[in-house]
Design a protein that fits this description.
The protein has 67 residues and is mainly α. The protein is 75% helix and 6% strand.
Length: 67
């Protein structure tokens, strides 16, 4: 599942949980899924940030540095 789909699913989970209509067991399942998705998104964001930082580097001569 791609990053955008994970974010969409997280939004769905939040909306469902905010309604307060779910049984406790279902709320716990959704919470667990949300935590997992959140962690996966964070890893993807960290990876993207590192790529951007490596592409934004410049050597003393002004040339772009990439890894």
């Amino acid at each position: 599942m791609g990053f955008e789909k994970k974010i969409e699913r997280l939004e769905q989970i939040v909306n469902q949980m905010e309604d307060g209509e779910l049984p406790l067991e279902e709320s716990l399942k959704l919470f667990e899924e949300g935590v997992k998705l959140s962690r996966e998104c964070q890893v993807q964001l960290n990876t993207a940030e590192q790529k951007v930082k490596s592409l934004m580097g410049v050597d003393p001569q002004g040339n772009a540095l990439t890894k």
